[in-house]
Amino acid sequence: NERVHPPTGEYRPAYICHVRDNIKYSQKKMWHYAQFVKGLTVDEALKQLSFTQGKGAIIAKEVIEEAVEIAIKEHNVEFRSNLWVAESFATKAKIIRGAR
After folding, report:
1. Nearest 10 degrees: CA dihedral of 35, 36, 41, 47?
2. What's the rounded Cα separation, in Å, for the pair 98 and 100?
3. pLDDT > 90? residue 75
4. Whole-number Å distance between alpha carbons of 1 and 76
5. What is the DSSP string of the chain?
6. Exposed e or buried b for every residue in 63-100, given b needs 16+ CB within 10 A?
7. Is the Cβ–Cβ distance between 60 and 20 less than 8 Å?
8. Which tens digits make up the pLDDT trace of 36-69?
9. More confident position, 32 or 79
């Protein structure tokens, strides 16, 4: 969200990035849900994740819903049906040794 485009009047789709870090869930299990929603529209991704059982599906659904809310409130996206999931990653979180 750091790009600055001059107001030329041409159509430019919105580009919103949203991240949730340090989720207490295996990255290997979460990877399947991340690949599952990549390339889908937001509405279709939420619909598919609601029918998928598993903790990772619930987490992915919450993150997509947060991203939609941020896009509508802060970035002035007019229609949520125009949003889609371009990229989705599941990477390893930072491990803190000795913490309980």
Report:
1. -150
2. 7
3. no
4. 13
5. --------SS-------------SS-HHHHHHHHHHHTTSBHHHHHHHHHTS-SHHHHHHHHHHHHHHHHHHHTS--S-GGG-B-------PPPP-TT--
6. bbeebbeebeeeeebeeeeebebeebebeeeeeeeeee
7. no
8. 999 999 999 999 999 999 999 999 999 999 999 9
9. 32
